Amino acid sequence: MSHYPPVELWRRKSVLALPACLISIILALAASAQPKSPNEQLYSKNKGGDPDADFYAVPIVPEGFEVTLVAKEPLVRNPCAIAFDGQGRMFIAQGPQYRRMKPDSPKDSVYLLIDDDNDGVADRRQLYATGFNGIQGLIWRGDDLYIANAPDLTIVRDLDGDDIADEYVKLYTDLGNIEHALHGLNFAPDGRLYMSKGNSKGLSLPGRVAPKAFRDLFGIDAPEGSPDIPPPQVFTAETYEATFHDPNDDWGRMGGILRANPDGSDLEIVSYGARNPWDINFSDGFDWLGADNDQLEGDRFFRPFLGAHLGWNHSWSTDWTGRDNLPTAPAILPLVDGSTTGVAYYDAEGFPENYRGFFVGDWLRKVVYFIRPKWDGARMEMGGGVPMDFVKGGKSLLRTTDLEIGADGALYALSWGTTYGSVFENGEMVNEGRVWRIAWKGKDPGTWNLTGIEVPLTDRSIDSLVDDLDHALKARRTNVSEELVRRGASQELKAWLTNDSLTTLQETWGLWTLGRINIGDESLDDWFADHLRNSY
């Protein structure tokens, strides 16, 4: 979609008799003469990556915070996704696939970064899983690592405890190519896997069929008799082979937000009408924020909810902002001229209270935004009116691809290298990469890894488990919730939830965990109603 006005009628008439090649040249020159939007100018300036980056410079943060370097090349090169498991171990996914892979291109991998001396700096890495096409998202649940690797969604598991994945499960496949692919993996308090999907479309051929919910977003049909959700495919590390999808394939109708059970069942669309929502995350009250990339108008922040249409390719009233457009869920204005990427939510004690909220990376502008939401009824708005530039890259290498909160209560930011694509010398990838740690000054950097420090969840009391429902680690909250559901701890949760000193995060996870125990028990309806009356 172009924002340029058409060439004037007289000019078009005057070239009708010219050869087609000259017509193309004239039209191209006419278009190039038009003024570029701020977003287009910024992209043009930085489309080669960041060749002028100062490798010794450090990003700039507000007074009271500090930035430290956790890892760089050769440990990380073009890192694209980060996830901490329930013990706080750091896993990094990285290139070289992005962005123009071929069937025989070297594959993407996931590495475990290891800090041997507990000084907060990675000393080495261990290959955890490999063989993927185009990783753009990671999330842990128990011993399962979910990987968004276009066009697949894959689960890998370490079955023998050697920190190397042995089992690979293709949960879904044919979800669309690497451009505007599957991102934004999150396990939420309701126990379900949420994901953001861009508008690249999957194939619809015999043997190459996406799940129906994805097909509905793409606007494509499947061969007669195709299952709504094709069965998962299980492999070993030796037999696994990633699915290839040509990165030059066309877009589908739209992207959106979807959710499913951890085993892939009950897949459904939550919100429609996205273009390229790189990431989503939820607040302490289970309210979502996402960031969606546009071509020219500017990136938007949005709040997905069940049944919402975000406006992209609406069947009868397409709109990008939702301003004065009733069919469209409104964006949380203003738009930003950049390229938004990772989204994290911070509600731990490691940051001052006025810096607790959403953080969103912007690859193009070399910043990490801070957004503290406020509410106008049921509508989320941006506190202060505009996003704050919390981290500024300056001359440093800060091409943010993902953000995550560690067990130490710090914000971790991944940075791409200095070039947009992969660079090889003598058969080896030589791109750069960074893992930055942003923390409040005076907080001991220590280690992000809690392995061996704590009692396993299965051996802990319910009283100690519930206290971890507001742990800084997303994976820890997920694992604690699952353990409480497994034990059927409804009576203990009811008693605990009457505590007036609970944090919002504890109450949110506690209530949703309770609701997942004995789902058919109608007596819980009365308890929830009484709790609501007594709380508010």
What does this structure look like?
The structure is a single chain. The chain has helices at 9-14, 20-32, 38-46, 212-218, 462-466, 474-487, 490-496, 504-516, 523-535; strands spanning 65-72, 79-84, 90-94, 108-114, 124-132, 135-141, 144-149, 152-157, 167-172, 182-187, 193-197, 204-205, 208-209, 233-236, 255-260, 268-274, 277-282, 288-292, 300-302, 308-309, 340-345, 358-362, 367-371, 373-376, 379-382, 388-392, 400-405, 411-415, 424-425, 428-429, 434-440. The chain has 536 residues and is of the alpha+beta class. The protein folds into two domains: 65-440, Neuraminidase; 457-535, no CATH class. It has a five-stranded antiparallel sheet. A five-stranded mixed sheet has the order 10-11-15-16-20. A hairpin with a 5-residue loop joins strand 27 and strand 28 (411-415). Helix 6 (474-487) runs parallel beside helix 8 (504-516). Residues 1-47 have low confidence and may be disordered.
Describe the structure concisely for a colleague.
The protein is 16% helix and 30% strand. With 536 residues, it is of the alpha+beta class. It folds into two domains: 65-440, TolB, C-terminal domain (Neuraminidase, 6 Propeller), CATH 2.120.10.30; 457-535, no CATH class.
CATH fold field value of the largest domain: Neuraminidase
For CATH, the homologous superfamily of the largest domain is named as TolB, C-terminal domain
Please give the order of strands in the largest beta sheet: 6-7-8-9-14
Output the radius of gyration.
24 Å
Briefly note the structural class of the backbone. alpha+beta
- The CATH top-level class label of the largest domain: Mainly Beta
Mean pLDDT: 87
Q: Portion of residues in helices?
A: 10-25%
Which ranges are low-confidence, i.e. pLDDT below 50, for 5 or more consecutive residues? Answer: 1-47
For the sheet with most strands, the description reads: 5 strands, antiparallel
Shape: globular
Tell me the span between the first and last alpha carbons: 49 Å
What CATH architecture label of the largest domain applies?
6 Propeller
Bin the strand percentage: 25-35%
Per DSSP E runs of 2 or more residues, the count of β-strands stands at 31
